[in-house]
UniProtKB/TrEMBL annotation:
Reaction catalysed by this enzyme: 2 6,7-dimethyl-8-(1-D-ribityl)lumazine + H(+) = 5-amino-6-(D-ribitylamino)uracil + riboflavin
Lumazine-binding repeat placement: 1-95, 96-192
Pathway: Cofactor biosynthesis; riboflavin biosynthesis; riboflavin from 2-hydroxy-3-oxobutyl phosphate and 5-amino-6-(D-ribitylamino)uracil: step 2/2
Gene3D superfamilies: 2.40.30.20
A Pfam cross-reference name: Lum_binding
Enzyme Commission code: 2.5.1.9
Domain annotation Lumazine-binding: ranges: 1-95, 96-192
Keywords, comma-separated and alphabetical: Repeat, Riboflavin biosynthesis, Transferase
Protein name, as recorded: Riboflavin synthase
Gene Ontology MF terms: riboflavin synthase activity
Example of a GO biological process term: riboflavin biosynthetic process
Claim: Glycosyltransferase is one of the keywords in the record: no
Function, as annotated: Catalyzes the dismutation of two molecules of 6,7-dimethyl-8-ribityllumazine, resulting in the formation of riboflavin and 5-amino-6-(D-ribitylamino)uracil.
């Protein structure tokens, strides 16, 4: 479980294909602190560390993950958001993020304002009921508040700190991102449907 507050940026340094799987070697400031079998959010995707070497760590994505996320587009040099799992005795600064991507979305508009940025994302209409005005959403693992919510889109505003310290600065119109909707809303929606 994560909070959506990005801890570090990592860089994909190499990829290894094995059957339908792809393993990614990531270099980051936190790689030396990781342990094998540890869960780490990479661009909002919970992946297990399976190897460590020379200030780098390796994670492997299976076909299901590659199909449902944007990991299949990663290449050497890709910058990724990293977050280790939350510590249960601390503050929850973002919101509850599982690292289980619900869908991908496409950036349809990026607006640079004086001191902030706005990104509008288009989601599959089948997921529209999972997002609300001023609700929480994880975009590439970053906890954000959405507004201008429509039937197939929403907008987020980015402060300078988030823009500088996360991979969101790489997003442009046409970029595909990983989306995880608020788990509380998903449970409530499921209970209401079953009653």
């Amino acid at each position: 479980m994560f909070t959506g507050i990005i801890e570090s940026l990592g860089t994909v340094v190499s990829l290894e294909k094995s059957g339908t799987n792809i393993s990614f070697w990531i270099a980051s400031p936190i790689s030396v602190e990781l342990k094998i079998d540890q869960s780490v959010s990479h661009e909002g995707v919970c992946l297990t560390v399976d190897a460590l070497a020379d200030g780098r760590h390796r994670v492997t994505a299976i076909e299901e993950t590659l199909t449902k996320t944007n990991l299949g587009s990663w290449q050497s040099g890709t910058i990724v958001n990293l977050e280790r799992c939350m510590v249960m005795n601390g503050r929850l600064d973002g919101h509850i993020v599982q690292g289980h991507v619900d869908c991908t979305a496409t950036c349809i508009h990026k607006l640079e304002k004086e001191g902030s940025w706005e990104f509008t994302f288009q989601i599959p209409p089948a997921f529209a009921h999972l997002i609300i005005e001023k609700g929480s959403v994880a975009v590439n693992g970053t906890s954000l508040t959405c507004f201008n919510v429509g039937n197939d889109r929403f907008t987020v505003a980015i402060i300078p700190y988030t823009y500088t310290h996360t991979s969101i600065r790489q997003i442009a119109a046409g970029s595909v991102v990983n989306i995880e909707f608020d788990i509380l809303g998903k449970y409530i929606e499921r209970m209401l449907r079953r009653s």
